[in-house]
Amino acid sequence: MELAIKIFQFILSISILVILHELGHFLPAKYFKTKVEKFYLFFDPYFSLVKKKIGETEYGIGWLPFGGYVKIAGMVDESMDTEQLKQPAQPWEFRAKPAWQRLIIMLGGVTVNFFLAWLIYSCLIGNNGENIFEAERMTTPLHYTEAAKKMGFQDGDKILKVDGKTQKDFKKLALDILLSDEITVERGGKEVTFHTNDDGKALAFNDPEPKSFLTPRLIPVIDTIAFKEASDAGLKVGDKILAVNNKPITFFDEVRPIVVPFAGKTIDLKVSRNAEILDLKMPVSKEGAIGINATKQLDKFNNHIDYNFGGSIKRGFTLTIESLTYQIKQFKLIFNSKVQGYKKVGGPLAIIKNMPVDKAQDGSVSIDWTAFWSFTAMFSVWLAFLNLIPIPGLDGGHVIFTLYEMIVGKPVPQKVLENAQMVGVIFLLGLMLLIFGADIFKIITNKF
């Protein structure tokens, strides 16, 4: 059931994003009286699931859920249909339109993606408000793992600035640090600035939970039980963890490093309950979790903010820009030789696996719509960024060639466009196969 819900969410999210992205190309093309031959959700090599021609445009749904496309007459695109390009340009063809109109058509998709993310974030903020985990108010000491210490942290450090900027929301602090160049801390009463070491970032980034290198030190009193298996094993809210596999526990962050190596197995948990000591056998999930938390101790540092209509629009814009900035910074980690972020890149299977769901204590699963729309907004920004990369085959490639024409005053030769498009399509197909293959390899090697 959980897998079915995740697949449904993935298809729904991708469908929304693709249809609106392609509408961003379709509507200005029609406005400028350019012929659109096809409008497809998903790709349709060899055959399509559904198709219907209305007017001059064939609308359809393909069987390969990796995106979608609009086929515009007179344009060198991924279809590599160059026969019509051998004929004189017709007034209704893309190539016959002024460069500024072609530029608007090509930028339409990413523009829609940006405004869609802005709209979703604004609606979420307007409806739910925002919880800020105020870092400056937090008095709980921080636990720095081996990865954090390799980055340059020491026990007792109080984080002041990341790349010269303060971060008010502690929930974003760990990601900021992973993407940072330098950190300023208060250490021994003095202000110290150091450059973050990539070796430490690599160690953190390869952890199943990359942000766990920086955690508040909490008393190990359970306030949340997410897994039915934990309740069935006898665990209750309010239990204080004394030991895991006979290893004494002082802080809650000490539990996870002991539990993770026993993924898919059983651990011994010693807890105290009303002055009584209990020994429990606790099953560990295949992801290395037992489904408990103690984070409600931090509720006193949470600040809930509600926004009026104007405020939600403004905050939604800020969150969209913030999301875009994070996407660009994370993209750099993919090519970092030490961090090797490319190992974390996943395809459709990885996205489905990480789709958000709402798990009840009785084991039932449902859609967490707030998390779903947050994911869709983030993914919309990600698609906008990816499509602007100047690679032939993506919108960014077409934009670069069009800008060249507008600056130089003459178009790029047709043969150059065709060859560049072919190289771009081959590159993108190869990249797609590599990413999809990486997902399959992880499944085969139980590293998914």
UniProtKB/TrEMBL annotation:
Enzyme class: hydrolase
Topological type in the membrane: Multi-pass membrane protein
InterPro entries: PDZ_sf, Pept_M50_Zn, Peptidase_M50
EC code: 3.4.24.-
SUPFAM superfamilies: PDZ domain-like (SSF50156)
Signal peptide range in chain numbering: none
Chain ranges of the Peptidase M50 domain: 10-430
Gene3D superfamilies, per the entry: 2.30.42.10
Required co-factors: Zn(2+)
Keywords: Hydrolase, Membrane, Metal-binding, Metalloprotease, Protease, Transmembrane, Transmembrane helix, Zinc
A GO term for molecular function: metallopeptidase activity
Family: Belongs to the peptidase M50B family.
Protein name per UniProt: Zinc metalloprotease
